[in-house]
Amino acid sequence: MSKILFVHPEGETQEVEAAEGSSAMRAALTGGVQGIAADCGGEASCATCHVYVGEEWADKVGGPGLDEDDMLEFTACERKPTSRLSCQIRIDRNLDGLVLNLPESQ
Q1: What pLDDT, on a 0 to 100 scale, did the predictor assign at position 98?
Q2: Which pLDDT band holds residue 27 (cuts at 50, 70, 90)?
Q3: Domain boundary assignment for the chain
Q4: In this structure, are residues 16 and 27 in contact, taking their beta carbons and an 8 Å threshold?
Q5: CA separation for the pair 43, 75 (Å, rounded)
Q6: CA distances for 106 relative to 4, 47, 78, 92, angstroms
Q7: Where are the beta strands (DSSP E) in the chain?
């Protein structure tokens, strides 16, 4: 299990556990993180699980794939260089301690 730290817009942090191979979105839903809507259930077709990857984690997480990149154009909040859909972030032991910042809205 890896730990993910979700940072809410007002600065509150919430730590959840994530199984290897699962998505950051699934960990957020299982852990009761408010601010991840995940309307499409993880199919990268709604942009309601948008997060900003902590700058220190951006290289480890990597950038979005082509479909994800297209979907990020439809986020409710500003798209930033570290924007990702949390449903597309696959957890492995190298991401233990990952920091994901939540946008103001989905």
Answers
A1: 98
A2: very high
A3: 2-101
A4: yes
A5: 15
A6: 19, 7, 10, 25
A7: 2-7, 13-18, 50-53, 83-85, 98-101
Taking residues 70-78, report their average pLDDT.
Answer: 95
Residues linked to residue 14 through DSSP beta bridges, in sequence order: 6
Q: How far apart are CA 4 and CA 18, in angstroms?
A: 7
CATH number of 2-101: 3.10.20.30
Each residue's pLDDT tens digit, 79-95:
999 999 999 999 999 99
CA dihedral 1→4→42→72, nearest 10 degrees, is -150
The reported pLDDT for the residue numbered 79 is: 97
* 5 token code pair: 């730290």
CA-based torsion, 67, 70, 74, 77: positive or negative: positive
Predicted TM-score (pTM) of the model is: 0.96
Exposure string for 53-88, b = 16+ CB within 10 A, e = fewer: bbeebeeebeebeeebeebbeebeeeeeebbbbbbb
